[in-house]
Amino acid sequence: MKTAAKRIAIVGGGPGGLYLAALMKQLDPAHDITVWERDAADVTFGFGVVFSDETLGGIENADPEFADAMARRFARWTDIDIHHRGESHTVGGQGFAAMSRKELLGLLQARCRDLGVVVHFSTPAPDIVGLRASHDLVVGADGVNSLVRQSFSDVFRPTLDRRHNKYMWLGTDRVFEAFQFFIKDTEWGTVQVHGYPYSDSGSTFIVEMHEDVWRRAGFDTAQEFAPGVSDDRAVERIRELFAEELAGHQVFANNSKWLSFTTVRNERWHHGNLVLVGDAAHTAHFSIGSGTKLAMEDSLALAACLHEHQDVEAALTAYEAERRPVVESTQRAAQASLEWFENIGMYAHQEATRFCFNLLTRSRRITYDNLRTRDSDFADRVDAAFAASQGLPGTAPAMFQPFRLGRLELKNRVIVSPMDMYSAVDGVPGDFHLVHLGSKAMGGAGLVMTEMVCVSPEGRITPGCTGLWSDEQRDSWARIVSFVHERSTARIGLQLGHSGRKGSTRLMWEGMDEPLPDGNWEVVGPSPLPYGPGSAVPREAGRDDMDRITAEFVAAARRGAKAGFDLLELHCAHGYLLSSFLSPIANQRTDSYGGSLHNRLRYPLEVFDAVRAVWPAERPMIVRISATDWASGGNTEHDAVEIARAFIAHGADAIDVSSGQVTADERPAYGRSYQTPLADRIRHEVAAATGTAVIAVGAIASYDDVNSILLAGRADLCAIGRTHLYDPHWTLHAAAEQEYRGAGAQWPVQYRAGSRKPPTSRTDAVRPRLSLLRADLPDRNVHLRWTPRNQLPEFSEEPQIARSI
């Protein structure tokens, strides 16, 4: 589509800004484009930049000449080498391409000159307000410390998350043959190097460590370094520290000093004729890829949208709508990766193969299935290491290995998570619950959990909630438990809870968390604070209330034991009564049950102890917690570790790690398996040492995710909810997909005729595509001048969207 020629101002002459200028000038030579760059043309930061095949494909489609020039300078490799505790492990089939950042900038600068783009180096941009008035489009491509973004911060509303690790970007003349992770245990703590080749003469060498380690190592000098000046003292110490890894080669500095990575997010990326690209709009930690890659992808998308829309604001709206989901997905993966490296010391005890697998899958973009496709030998070693760590024979998929929870034997590691159905009458579960839970038990899961079963009429969330305050309810539950035991090999667990301040609300599909229009009952909480706007104000629980509710929990537990439940879970999550005692957002008491975390734990632990005393000793008792409130002033993952520690000390057999729902003001960071890092932290900091199981839950949707979580040691069991609503036989279908027919996934005799893997399975659908990608590769390598080891493309289950123009 031909659009009118535009006058365009680009602030920032890095790869994103220069590439956008070149693309726009190619689309229409009549565009009047000026770039302002505050640094000199030959000034850059860092050494090499990494690209994915998706990005390179977009560049090739948009500008074949420039793509060819890049390709002639690429270093490509396929392996990742991990060095830790005197051992080296190689994992193949990854697929990377990198080049010198200085050469990339030189190519872009030459391309802009050839196309007639005006570039002012060593020149700060004019006033942004004036530029907006005199230009059709103003682009902020001026990096993480963007002046454009700062000038309009009230519009873009940025958040800058300064992280806990320190890093320094260096180079070396040692040419690595693969991506290198050097994990070094020092007297000060763990230090790691991310290294990769970018040419036939050099490699990037990024040194990273936690700020605490950095201080203990004496790197925290008060000296300030001018722009372009490196921290020579630190560089020399790094040469000494990594002398073995450098193997006699040199380390080079280039504006190299200690930095703290800052994750940049903006609520908006555009305003009128002003737009942000690259690091000015968003950043993603270097451990999963290159900011240069994201910036150039932004430029591809922005150029395409400007070419497709006559109106600038419509084009910018389309650009943001296209790029934001991709960037946010990348940022979620980057967040998981950077947090893993911040906490790398937690994993130092892991067996070497499991440590490597944990490192490789840290961002959740690479999974067990991905690695098996790339390097089946390594995947076999991972399987063997997991089985050995559990003292188990055979090579069943991790999810189908048995597990002992207290004295309870589970046939596999899949749990049907508690899910409220709001379908009881006077608290009595009926035929719906029999079919609902019975079908999940026959569907292959090792453990099926009830919804939250309330301990009193006043402890219900809604009028449709189930209970255990009467013998009639007990007997109805006993019927369901008997069916599960007689018709399946699953176990069934009881979740007990009290709604607290979140009670007396409508059924979920009539208005979640909204008060009943009539027939309300009084709600109670630790403090007279409502859950959210429009919620009922709870009565502050007094001593008599607390004693009565404790007695109700005890009576319900006794009925549950008599009904035959195999396990009891105390619900201390999601803002219900016991959870609200734990949270400083809901609990603002001034007595011995409020204030410090120790005091806030007091009542939930009293209830736990009282229930544990009457629950049969041979049956496990576990606790579900909200590991973070996702709100300012609330509990964090650090508090969760101490909460878990307290319940474990009181005899909990497992910690079920959920999050949030404590306040209506929460801001969760949703994403695939988004709560698993919380479980991981609790498992490694407290649970593993005591032999206490940890359950991961939250957007775990595939068997590949389950296997990956278990194999990496992030949890012992996985609880899956909504996926089981979509497919009650999900676990059996996962076994069929993996061609597993062992004891961990026994089909009911009535269903065995359907137990074979369908001919059009997920696995069969993916593998032909992978072979097609491999077949495409030789043509892409024609112009490579340095290609160590073998070449394979990068496979990603969340491919980046690269626009073609």
Task: Give a verbal description of the structure.
With 805 residues, the protein is α/β, with parallel strands linked by helices. It is built from 27 helices and 29 strands. Strands 5, 6, 10, 11, 12, 13, 14 and 15 form an eight-stranded mixed sheet that branches. The protein has an eight-stranded parallel beta barrel with strand order 20-21-22-25-26-27-28-29, surrounded by seven helices. The relative contact order is 0.10. The model is unreliable at 761-805 (pLDDT under 50). This is Bifunctional salicylyl-CoA 5-hydroxylase/oxidoreductase. Residues 399-735 form the NADH:flavin oxidoreductase/NADH oxidase N-terminal domain. Pfam families: FAD_binding_3, Oxidored_FMN.
Features:
single chain; 805 residues; alpha/beta; eight-stranded mixed β-sheet; eight-stranded parallel beta barrel; 29 strands; 19% strand; disordered C terminus
Q: Summarize model confidence as the mean pLDDT.
A: 90
Helical content (DSSP H or I, runs of 4+):
25-40%
Tell me about the largest β-sheet.
Answer: 8 strands, mixed
Q: Rg to the nearest angstrom?
A: 29 Å
Number of helices: 27
Distance between the termini: 11 Å
Number of strands: 29
Topology:
Layout: E1 7-11, H1 15-27, E2 32-36, E3 48-51, H2 53-62, H3 64-71, E4 75-77, E5 80-84, E6 87-91, E7 96-100, H4 101-115, E8 118-120, H5 128-134, E9 137-140, H6 147-151, H7 153-156, E10 158-172, E11 179-186, E12 189-197, E13 203-210, H8 211-216, H9 232-241, H10 243-246, E14 251-253, E15 259-266, E16 270-271, E17 274-276, H11 291-308, H12 312-342, H13 352-360, H14 368-374, H15 376-390, E18 403-405, E19 408-410, E20 414-416, H16 431-442, E21 447-454, H17 471-487, E22 491-497, H18 508-511, E23 524-525, E24 539-540, H19 543-563, E25 567-572, H20 577-582, H21 597-614, E26 621-626, H22 637-649, E27 654-658, H23 676-690, E28 693-697, H24 703-712, E29 717-720, H25 722-726, H26 730-737, H27 762-780
Parallel strand pairs: 1-2, 1-9, 2-8, 5-11, 9-17, 20-21, 20-29, 21-22, 22-25, 23-24, 25-26, 26-27, 27-28, 28-29
Antiparallel strand pairs: 3-7, 4-7, 5-6, 10-13, 10-14, 10-15, 11-12, 12-13, 16-17, 18-19
